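Record type: ASSEMBLY
Status: queued
Input:
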Amino acid sequence: AQTVTQSQPEMSVQEAETVTLSCTYDTSENNYYLFWYKQPPSRQMILVIRQEAYKQQNATENRFSVNFQKAAKSFSLKISDSQLGDTAMYFCAFMKHGTGNQFYFGTGTSLTVIP
Amino acid sequence: GAVVSQHPSWVICKSGTSVKIECRSLDFQATTMFWYRQFPKQSLMLMATSNEGSKATYEQGVEKDKFLINHASLTLSTLTVTSAHPEDSSFYICSAEAPYSNQPQHFGDGTRLSIL
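Status: finished
Output:
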């Protein structure tokens, strides 16, 4: 079974600053995907960024980037120039490659951006 | 594209009643859908995998007779909470696999279930 660990239950960051959310996972799979999802108070699940395990290059999406360390099984999310709208729960998720596969979610990190 | 609609968004009902939650893929066909449960300030926990035309696969600890799942068409899966009790109150989220999408799964907006 796969496990995903987020060791930071809560974090805060000053507006316009940079923050990094941690995620580690455990798997014996070689082909998989990793994701960061954002869940604002509206409870909608919003995909922030994804990373294919076979790609060495770290994924980036505008202000969001990841530091993917496959050997260490680490997948952290960096948010640059934090905005008030970034305030939300952030979930790290693992999925095996292929169809019909479920997500394994971490326990989440509650991020608050302080004006 | 790849929109998943979940209905209702919020339901309040008396203890002992059954509640049906619908999950629809609006612009694509989904052979596989997933049902999650989320308690306040906790993560999403997979309850079951719903496959069109076959029985759902339930996760360990999830009561099949309590949480009935039906996936009768390629665009609709339903979750029925039978004889609901206050401990069943939670946030329920569905997701659907979307072929040829840049996302492996698309999530509904969730259903807040409150049992009095």
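Annotation: Chain A has a mean pLDDT of 94.
Annotation: Chain A has no helices and twelve strands.
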